[in-house]
Design a protein that fits this description.
Helix content: 25-40%
Largest sheet: 8 strands, mixed
Number of domains: 2
Strand order of the largest sheet: 5-4-3-10-11-14-12-13
Order of helices and strands: HHEEHHEHEHEEEEEHEHHEHEEE
Strand content: 25-35%
Length: 284
């Protein structure tokens, strides 16, 4: 059994004293010594935990420092009884935060196409469900059309990406044929008329995910969207998409959220789209 109760506070103290330096080395040492599956608690009071592979790339999941601005936003935006859809859910790290936020009367739907990630995602959704929450896993990729696509299998499991001329990958080790759906068609199949929060992390495929949800946006059926944006191409697309559907924007610059367009900031990693304007303080 992984000694998380002893190690995790120790790791956090070490990184606090070193001002974050040495994290990659610590992650590799941990994976080398403890080459086994481990569990990390996402919400203690609600008994929500997830399983992690023995892979140093998941070290930030283990110590819960991975993109804390995203987990904070999910925790603050999603409310009891809400519906959250996690597109590109990976193994379910953010899905677990969503389950804690929406409570036992809410629903979390997780879409992940890659086979190994999906195995962990399914196991984590089952683990969350055993605690009384509604969290479902679907081995699907959201896109602009329903059908099939080629997924580039990256050396690191959080960088798998659908074949796309806008997303050049290095360290691609394999390819996998996957099933794609549009969110418009998929939401109808699940009888969803409103999505409180849509999280998209698809390594450059975000524009096609949004294109496949046009009917939902036209119906004003999505309250909030959190998605990655790490290129000028994506920034331009998302800004134009927001103009078309009258969506408000907050942009994360690595330190703070800003009420502005993506193209107005030189550096950005994520953005939040919303039907109504919201204050950046609500995401902290």
């Amino acid at each position: 059994m992984y000694p998380d109760k002893f190690l995790l506070p120790l790791y956090r103290n070490i990184l606090h004293l070193s001002l974050g330096r040495g994290e990659q080395t610590l992650a590799k040492i941990d994976a080398l010594i403890f080459n086994l599956q481990r569990k990390t608690v996402i919400h203690c009071n609600k008994n929500i935990s997830i399983l992690l592979p023995p892979d140093p790339h998941f070290f930030r999941y283990l110590i819960k420092s991975h993109e804390q601005h995203v987990s904070n936003a999910i925790s603050n935006l999603a409310k009891d009884g809400d519906v959250v859809v996690d597109v590109g859910a990976n193994i379910g790290y953010f899905s677990a935060y969503a389950a804690a936020a929406v409570g036992k009367f809410g629903q979390v739907f997780c879409l992940e196409p890659e086979a190994k990630n999906f195995e962990y995602l399914k196991a984590n959704c089952d683990l969350i469900q055993r605690s009384g929450f509604n969290c479902s896993a679907f081995q699907l990729a959201a896109s602009s059309v329903s059908g099939q696509a080629t997924l580039n299998i990256h050396r690191y499991s959080t960088y798998h990406a659908i074949e796309d001329e806008q997303h050049n990958l290095d360290k691609v080790e394999n390819k996998q044929l996957i099933k794609t759906v549009t969110l418009d068609e998929w939401s109808q199949s699940q009888a969803l008329t409103n999505i409180s929060l849509l999280k998209i992390d698809t390594e450059g495929h975000e524009p096609k995910v949004l294109e496949g949800a046009r009917q939902l946006f036209e119906a004003r059926a999505i309250d909030f969207v959190i998605l990655e944006c790490r290129s000028d191409y994506l920034a331009n697309f998302i800004d134009e998409f927001c103009k078309e559907f009258s969506l408000n924007q907050l942009v994360w610059d690595g330190q703070d959220w800003h009420q502005t367009t993506l193209q107005s900031l030189a550096y950005k990693t994520e953005c939040l789209l919303s039907k109504e304007p919201i204050s950046p303080t609500l995401l902290c």
